[in-house]
Amino acid sequence: MRRLLPLVLFAVIYASITARDDTPRLRVPTADEYVAVVAAIAADIEQFPSYPASFFFDAVHDALFYLYPDTGDIEFDALRERFYTAAGVGDRDLVDRWRWVRQMVVAKITEDAIDLSQVEVLTFEDFYITVTPRDFDADGTDEFLLDIAKGKPVDRARENCLQVEVIAYLVAQPTAEGYRFIDTNVDWRGHQYWGYSGLDGGVAELGFEDINADGLPEWIVVAGGERVGGPGMGYANAGSLIVLGWRAGGLTHVVSTVRGEVSTVFFSVRDCNGPIPLDVTWDFTNIDDDDALEILQSQEFIDNWACQRTETKVFDWKPDEDRYAFDEERVESMPFIPKIAGSETPKKSLDGDYAAATPCSNVQ
Q1: Per-residue pLDDT for 9 more than 90?
Q2: Exposed, middle or buried by CB within 10 Å (0-12, 13-18, 19+), for 99?
Q3: How confident is the model at residue 99 (pLDDT cuts 50, 70, 90)?
Q4: Alpha-carbon Rg of the chain, whole angstroms?
Q5: Which residues of 150-171 are buried (b: 16+ CB within 10 A; e: fewer)?
Q6: β-strand 179-183 against 203-209: which pairing, if any?
Q7: CA 47 to chain centre
Q8: What angle do CA 72, 73, 78 make, to 5 degrees?
Q9: Which of 332, 333, 343 is nearest to 363 (CA)?
Q10: Which of 20, 22, 42, 110 is nearest to 72 (CA)?
Q11: Which residues lie closer than 8 Å to 297 by C-beta, 6 or more apart?
Q12: 285 - beta bridge partners?
């Protein structure tokens, strides 16, 4: 009977979750009741070999994010021990692992009434949080950018390919009651993310300034590294430039990051040496007659003939669309193959013998 009781209670809770319309539904349990049931089920789940663990996990996941969106309902210790640990989130939830970590961070800051204006680094358990004051909405009062790592501390400017559970950004906006917590729309990273390390290439901040002359600062971030490929076919990393602006109380992309769109700022990187690729540079400068800066993204390419070219994509601010859009691409190429005919030895010049040189444009 002791073993059946958790399952009965669990069924009651799950039924209350799945009833999404206006029909009569069972009473939603309090947070304390729910935590107690989860603990009982987690303790006994191995005694039921036919009971699908994924069903338990999915129900706990739904309850946490739909029944109890206010993390003040559940304490940090309960979130960590009874949910994150008992449900095996670190190994199982490859998509929403960050949402669980977010709940724990918010609960901890709320419970301990932490004054973020008084700390630069916040540590507890295996959480490492760098706190940076930033006035995203330009109202004269700082919000706080929380750079959160769970598992081990990370230097985003230098390290990548690390086995860390979660690395993500979160914004805390001061309110009369404490803080309002706002997601940044920058993807979280962590180990076992879709089968590869989500940290390849890392994430690094390029700047925090008003580049489009709208009176609000833009937050400019480089997200490197989706590692793709496999044995026998090689590997490649990819990344993107992310520009976020404050809109309607939150952060919104003002440069599209959807692949395939002509306005996408997207690039490939050659290796796994950090968040800033070796062959891509960015310049924010005014090249037209408006007040907004253009984004110039330049990437160098070298082929197997040692011909080198630089492709520069220009993105112009479109105030009517409230975003940066692709404007033009500029290509600069070296004129000749930097090798002497009949020799495989590269040279920096052809010693003036241009008549014997092959134009790079003739190489297919």
Answers
A1: no
A2: middle
A3: confident
A4: 26
A5: bbeebebeebbbbebbbbbbbb
A6: unpaired
A7: 39
A8: 95
A9: 333
A10: 110
A11: 241, 265, 267, 280, 281, 282, 312, 313, 315
A12: 294
* C-alpha–C-alpha distance, residues 197 and 101, integer Å: 18
Strands (E), the chain: 121-124, 127-134, 143-150, 166-174, 179-183, 203-209, 218-230, 234-247, 250-253, 266-269, 280-285, 294-302, 308-318, 323-333
Write the pLDDT tens digit of every residue in 73-97: 788 888 887 778 776 776 666 677 8
* pTM > 0.85: no
Q: Return the amino acid letter for 327.
A: D
CA distance 109 to 315: 39
pLDDT band per the 50, 70, 90 thresholds, residue 67: confident
Cα distance between residue 207 and residue 210, in whole Å: 10
Phi, psi of 72 (to 5 degrees): -65, -15
What three-state secondary structure class fits 203?
strand
Q: Which of 287, 214, 278 is nearest to 244 (CA)?
A: 214
Dump pLDDT digits (tens) for 252-297: 999 865 544 444 565 665 444 455 665 778 899 999 989 999 999 8
Rounded Cα–Cα distance for residues 292 and 349 (Å) = 40
CB of 202 closer than 8 Å to CB of 225: yes
